[in-house]
Amino acid sequence: xxxxxxxxxxxxxxxxxxxxxxxxxxxxxxxxxxxxxxxxxxxxxxxxxxxxxxxxxxxxxxxxxxxxxxxxxxxxxxxxxxxxxxxxxxxxxxxxxxxxxxxxxxxxxxxxxxxxxxxxxxxxxxxxxxxxxxxxxxxxxxxxxxxxxxxxxxxxxxxxxxxxxxxxxxxxxxxxxxxxxxxxxxxxxxxxxxxxxxxxxxxxxxxxxxxxxxxxxxxxxxxxxxxxxxxxxxxxxxxxxxxxxxxxxxxxxxxxxxxxxxxxxxxxxxxxxxxxxxxxxxxxxxxxxxxxxxxxxxxxxxxxxxxxxxxxxxxxxxxxxxxxxxxxxxxxxxxxxxxxxxxxxxxxxxxxxxxxxxxxxxxxxxxxxxxxxxxxxxxxxxxxxxxxxxxxxxxxxxxxxxxxxxxxxxxxxxxx
Length: 416
What we know:
Elements: E1 23-27, E2 51-55, H1 57-63, H2 65-72, E3 80-83, H3 88-98, H4 113-125, H5 129-141, H6 149-158, H7 163-179, H8 187-192, H9 196-205, H10 214-225, H11 238-252, H12 255-261, H13 270-283, E4 309-312, E5 315-326, H14 345-348, E6 360-362, E7 368-370, E8 382-384, E9 390-395, E10 400-405, E11 410-412
Parallel strand pairs: 1-3
Antiparallel strand pairs: 1-2, 4-5, 4-11, 5-8, 5-9, 6-7, 9-10
Helix pairs in contact: 1-2, 3-4, 4-5, 5-7, 6-7, 7-9, 9-10, 10-11, 10-13
């Protein structure tokens, strides 16, 4: 004799199977959206006719401990049971799951998040754990994109009392926010959201585009922080504002870019521009010349300024001179000091090749020599130039001056 696993339980619902149904389940109303935890008494709408399903008490009780208590407890229910706070579609999916009815629409075919929550509500209420886990897996694998992002956030707010399901689905939303290339598209919905963690995630993600969409990101960040019910502190803005400041400081380097960047007084971005300037002014670090303080960051040699505090290794120093270029001392081996392998070492060494010493000419003996000045013999090779490739550092404590080239590792030593 075959075991129970081989039985097609869906045939029980057929009148020809020979085991008649012994309970009628009437769907009274669909009020899941207004359902509060622990609330049982929900009035049936006068305009909503009940829909009935017939089933077997033993089948329902085998899957659901709630039905088991209802039908076989100390006060057994009768042959007609009113199911409140549900709808026909959701209850049918649960019933088909109980009877393992093949070839019918189930949880796998549902895409609407509210429909899934309707079924989850029944699975949770009647403790049909297999169906409950199935829906949780569906939430875990659900595709969240810009098109359904708003609907999902709305559902999370409506069904917030289902904490486990909401946490699973919310993780998918947070994943979208983190990976989406243009968080500006997510701002409007975040403003309407009642969840501060969603607001914060979108706000922080604006840092990804703040350098490119400067004023738009500033405006979006303040729109979120000032939205109704938002409890985020203003310090949450720092990451976004620092990204925007980096873009703004690049704009400041070009008068033409600045002219194009500045919004008109009537522009919706004008207030964002004022806020950006205020942040830039308050946070400005005079040592590194940036509002997004560059302490600990590498000093770009072309941007090094006289008076800047820097670190060379573990030694502190102050830039005492900039605008220097180092010229080679040997045109043959292209080094500052000829190695023993240089064929012109004794004939050529200690010559500075800067044009300031005159034009270099090729001598008959194969060497090069300056035509106009003999000072090239004693010149250190450092000269003023428009492009900064060298600087001098006054090292604190030792009172020594160190010459640094573009290959020297300098980092800002700001006080902030």
